[in-house]
Amino acid sequence: MDQAAERSTTIVVWTSKESDSDPISRVRKLLFRQMLVGIKDGRFFLGNFHCLDKQGNIILQDTLEYRSIRRSSPSPTEHRCLGMILIPSSCRTSCHVDCSIEEQLSLIKLKE
User: Fold this and answer.
1) Looking at residues 105-109, what average pLDDT do you find?
2) Is the pLDDT of residue 87 over 90?
3) Which CDD domains match (predicted)?
4) Across-strand partners of 64?
5) Which of 7, 23, 74, 91 is the most buried (most CB within 10 A)?
6) How are strands ordered across the β-sheet holding 58-68?
7) How many CB atoms lie within 10 A of CB 74?
């Protein structure tokens, strides 16, 4: 249980006041980390972070898709393997990265 308390999810945020190199170094720290991305239709994608472009589109590799199914089923969700996918920024509702509390503090920049 202690390990579970140590690991958490966080949303990666940066402000426009930061220099151009600072967001790039933060994104590099996320490479190959497991990321959970939610989209508008209620599906979630869990995969390894591979890329982020200027428009905010995310590429995940080795991705699993999770979606809700009928309530009469014993399992409320089903999943399938997708491989490498691109998630457009216009569809994204949430983005979480699995990391320790120390890493969360280094990734999150509070507005001044």
Assistant:
1) 66
2) yes
3) LSMD1
4) 46, 81
5) 23
6) 7-10, 92-100, 34-39, 44-52, 58-68, 77-87
7) 4
